[in-house]
Amino acid sequence: MQAEFPGLEPKPSKADPLDILIATMLSQNTTDKTSYIAFQNLKNNIGTWEEVLNAPISKIRNAVRVCGLTNQKSAAIKNLLKQLKQKHGELSLKYLDKMSNDEVYKDLLQYKGIGVKTISCMLAFSLGRDVFPVDTHVHRIINRLGIVKAVTPVKTFEQVKDKIPDGKKFLFHTLLIRFGRKICRAQKPLCGKCRLYDICEFSEKEKYAMLSSAEPVENNFIILEHV
Ligand code: SF4
Prior knowledge:
Endonuclease III, domain 1, 12 helices, mainly alpha, binds iron/sulfur cluster
């Protein structure tokens, strides 16, 4: 089944886990574009993570300002680098390779500004682990469907992480993201075109079904056929 979706399976990438972790920290509450610019600013204007650690906080703030939450993000990055250096003697997350997913969550949750979504993204995109990152989109969809009832993405993650079969977690995440872009959109979901309509528990689905019944749709069976 996964062969039908080349690129959706998590694979260990060449990306350094510390790079991915910091890039994901920068991506909170902003767009991919601005967080990418902030990451490039850190690398181009300051240099290695060792140089970022030794740079004045004002310089780190200037580098990441473009992606918002400047003070929190710059302090969290500085704190992460400082503690990594103190604990491990180097600025590297290679020690995570030998840890289970649960051990990685426990280890990295100790750092301020790093949450389960950030850790999940690093696990999936750098270490190739089969995990289920819950961002606002995944949170929205599975709560609308009624799979869980949770008020925050963190609580959704806690409720759902052990319910998805091993080997399907990251694929399910990826398909939900695609489903959220095309059908179960944050604004004006296409409930009138949705194959999950009958089982969905979203209280406003009838209203959005009427609004979306005339809208064209590319593919409305993404989840049903492929998970
Ligand atoms: S019926 Fe509407 S709210 Fe429910 S999953 Fe489909 S698009 Fe989302």
